[in-house]
Amino acid sequence: MDSIYVFCCCVVGLVTMLSYPSKCDLEAEPTCLSRFDYDYKMLQKLVSLEQTIKNLKDSLAESKNKIEELSKEVIDSGSVYIRWGRNECQDNAEVIYKGFTAGKKWNDKGSGSDTICLPEDPSWLNYSTSSYPRGTVYGTEINIDEPSGVFENKVNDQDLPCVACHIKKSSMIMVPGRSHCHTGWTLEYAGYLMTAYNDHHGPHNHVCVDHHPDFVHGGKADHNEHILYLTISKCGSLPCPPYANDRELACVVCSK
Ligand SMILES: *[C@@H]1O[C@H](CO)[C@@H](O)[C@H](O)[C@H]1NC(C)=O
Ligand SMILES: [Ca+2]
Ligand SMILES: [Ca+2]
What we know:
This protein is of the alpha+beta class. The protein has helices at residues 2-19, 35-77; strands spanning 79-84, 94-103, 116-119, 138-142, 161-167, 172-176, 186-195, 207-210, 226-230, 232-233, 247-248, 250-255. Bound molecules: 2-acetamido-2-deoxy-beta-D-glucopyranose and calcium ion (CA) (2 copies).
């Protein structure tokens, strides 16, 4: 039985050898001296192919991980914005903190020029009871003659809350002079552009106050400290149209 098997193998080997006489068809292989040489070279080739496939698989897996990592980063990164005049974020946003809108007193010559959102749950480092020069921050109220024809509710003298919102979008922009976002951008909130009164001291920034503001509880009294006024456009260097004289500017906060 064994000898027949060996014989058969020899015959097959011989026939195969004869059909690959002196040189092989495999171009990458130099010369095949025998069927066994050919097999050996094929095997070598297979092993190297296997290694190549393994390397490719590894680098694919690596790329896949990297893509997952990056897309997670994009989602995790997100953006933040302050919604001035409200104490709730939109449904798609997470509340970082709720607070009180605040800034310098209208007739203080110095202090900070910006509007800040002071959290309703403050915590402190060291503080002093002695008196020495410092900047002072006051709560914000709206000053507006009523009925204004702008806000749907009575807002005069009301103190304004604010809320810091976090959204899973990578870009944010506040656009003054718009009541809706440009194409491709999603509205976070719309409102009116507000700042200090022309005759009041010092520089002041502009903030976009929600068109339907909430009020700080018990803030109806007329304190006139940090006061926000509506902002109007003036024709001149500013072309009209598209702008108009003495018209209250809207604003939008948009995300993408
Ligand atoms: C607070 O004041 C104490 C004593 O003056 C000082 O040792 C400490 O470092 C201060 N803490 C901070 C956070 O500045
Ligand atoms: Ca007032
Ligand atoms: Ca008030």
